[in-house]
Write a structure and sequence with these properties.
CATH architecture of the largest domain: 3-Layer(aba) Sandwich
CATH topology of the largest domain: Aminopeptidase
Oligomer: single chain
Strand order of the largest sheet: 1-3-2-10-4-9-8-7-6-5
Order of helices and strands: HEEEHEEHHEEEHEHE
Number of strands: 10
Strand content: 25-35%
Structural class: alpha+beta
Radius of gyration: 19 Å
CATH class of the largest domain: Alpha Beta
Distance between the termini: 46 Å
Number of helices: 6
Length: 247
């Protein structure tokens, strides 16, 4: 499917380890490593990435000393990290699945909707997006990280018979590996219940794979709607992260 990166799963695991090594300034050891990253400066969160024989715990540099007892030769599980962090005064924030598309996306019905690729710099396309966002709630827009002032570089939409956007998918370079598109999806309230989210993500993924891109989809474990989208399209869970917060 992708001659440049034939194994997205290996590429994903390598990306997490490589990013940790950049922050550490050294090779990542086996076991559990707390990584104080300048990119997380000011954050009160700590996030564990279990990777088999390695577990990376990312946090702001100021939090690293507080979590230093978690540096150990064995790789802690997400549950073990949560228990240890809570004993240090942290509170549970959530769990998230990070998924990668390891094959071609599923072929899904678009229910008569047309597929269009939008250009974020084209005024007419921005107008379509403005009309779309006007009909969505702030919570929906926040979850999809859809901001008209900071649009993602790649956007694919499904439009109805009037030419209005019914469902939206976009991708931005993943923070840990810019060759992955980190996907967002949002369906207009008037068009929900028709599996358009999965359809637009599948169309987005198909087009981006042709351009040599890798595809990443992440969601909160409790977001069952996003989980259905990911499973329907064919995304596989690569990692389940656990996040905690400190006062």
């Amino acid at each position: 499917m992708n001659d440049r990166f034939p194994d997205p799963a290996l590429r994903f695991a390598g990306a997490v380890s490589a990013a940790a090594e950049v922050d550490l300034g050294r090779e990542l050891s086996l076991g559990t490593t707390v990584v104080g990253s300048p990119r997380r400066e000011g954050s009160t969160l700590a996030v564990a990435y279990p990777l088999g024989d390695r577990t990376v715990i990312w946090c702001a540099p100021t939090l690293a000393p507080r979590l230093s007892t978690l540096n150990r030769p064995d790789a802690v599980t997400g549950d073990e990290f949560l228990a240890a962090a809570e004993s240090l005064g942290a509170s549970f924030v959530g769990r998230g699945h990070l998924r990668v598309l390891t094959g071609e996306p599923a072929s899904l019905s678009r229910h008569g909707y047309d597929v269009i690729e939008l250009d974020r710099d084209e005024p007419a396309d921005r107008g379509l997006l403005a009309a779309f966002t006007a009909g969505c709630s702030e919570d929906d827009l926040d979850e999809a990280e859809l901001d008209l002032h900071e649009l993602d570089p790649a956007i694919v939409v499904l439009v109805d018979e009037t030419g209005s956007i019914a469902s939206y998918a976009s991708g931005r370079p993943w923070a840990l590996d810019a060759d992955f598109d980190d996907i967002a999806v949002l369906t207009h309230p008037d068009h929900r219940g028709r599996r358009l989210g999965a359809a637009v993500v599948a169309e987005f993924a198909r087009r981006r794979q042709r351009s040599g891109r890798l595809l990443l989809y992440n969601h909160n474990v409790e977001n069952h709607g996003s989980e259905r989208v990911a499973q329907t399209v064919g995304f596989e869970v690569m990692n389940t992260v656990v996040a905690v917060g400190f006062d």
